[in-house]
Specification:
This protein is α/β, with parallel strands linked by helices. The chain is built from nine helices and 13 strands. Strands 5-4-1-8-9-10-11-12-13 form a nine-stranded mixed β-sheet, sandwiched between helices. The protein has a four-stranded mixed β-sheet with strand order 3-2-6-7. The protein starts with a strand and ends with a helix.
Length: about 280
């Protein structure tokens, strides 16, 4: 059975530590306000939101036969996410230091290496059957980029807190029809979005936290959307949910302003939970 959206990238097991301020780079002691373990990974977040929106999707991710991998696979299965798993040497794990203002430092405890490509024929067929392909920043999606391009399907990428210069992101940007990012490390987000359109993308979007998001379309028109006011519990996954909402709306034929509104609405649902999506509240507690 084909899926409307093929997503490749990280699904991880994360430890979240809530602090009153991000630690300074000097030896010291600091008390956590709260901590919990949960499903993480930018691709897992997108898949969860797409499922909640009723959009069929297939998540391709890597995991090992270890305890974190079992927890990740179980959570996604119980949430109704269709998955295809590649074998990894280790399941991805993060330690995220968070503040209530949404500031974050992510420490990667383990990150899988790219596979040897043994399943490439099946993966290429799945991508070719999809209406859109989402490739997230990781070694395996980077390896899949040429195969994704060979299908002719539109590729959506999320470069997160890209600073405008990092080399790892550039192949993703070069292949993208739609580019998403946040403004954390960009001096001029709109200028960056316009550079993406000049490079061949048809849509470029930058999320602005509490200030909503700004987008530039294929004609160079600028669009803005306000954030949906909510009581924020945790910001993890909000950007993934925003992309999922925009993608779902665009595949349904919505114009950019309507799609951005759908993205803001989707993002607001995950800001109310300490997990990647409210569906995990009952699954993970």
């Amino acid at each position: 059975m084909s899926a409307s959206v093929f997503i490749a990238g990280p699904a991880s097991w994360n430890s979240i530590v809530l602090v009153d301020r991000l630690p300074e780079p000097v030896p010291h002691m600091q008390f956590a306000e709260d901590s919990w373990e949960t499903l993480g990974g930018t691709s897992a977040g997108k898949a969860l939101s797409l499922v909640a929106l009723g959009r069929s999707s297939l998540l391709y991710a890597l995991s090992a036969r270890d305890e974190p991998g079992t927890l990740v696979r179980s959570a996604l299965e119980r949430a109704g996410v269709r998955t295809r798993w590649g074998t990894a040497d280790a399941t991805e794990r993060h330690l995220n230091l968070m503040t209530r203002r949404g500031e974050r430092v992510s420490l990667y405890l383990a990150a899988p290496a790219a596979t040897d490509g043994a399943d490439d024929a099946a993966l290429t067929a799945a991508m070719a059957d999809a209406d859109a392909i989402v490739l997230d920043l990781a070694a395996e999606p980077l390896r899949l980029l040429p195969l994704a391009q060979s299908t002719g399907r539109p590729i959506w990428v999320d470069v997160h807190d890209y600073d405008g210069t990092a080399e790892f992101h550039r192949p993703f940007l070069a292949a993208a029809e739609a580019v998403f990012c946040n403004a954390d490390r960009l001096d001029d987000p709109v200028a960056f979005l316009r550079s993406c359109i000049r490079a061949g993308a048809t849509l470029a979007v930058c999320t602005l936290g509490a200030d909503g998001a700004v987008a530039v379309d294929a004609d160079g028109a600028e669009h803005r959307v306000a954030a949906v006011p909510v009581e924020v519990v945790d910001t993890n996954g909000a950007g993934d949910a925003f992309l999922a909402g925009v993608l779902d709306a665009r595949l349904a034929g919505a114009e950019v302003p309507v799609a951005l509104t759908a993205g803001a609405r989707s993002a607001s649902t995950v800001l109310r939970t300490r997990h990647l999506h409210p569906v995990l509240d009952e699954i993970l507690g």
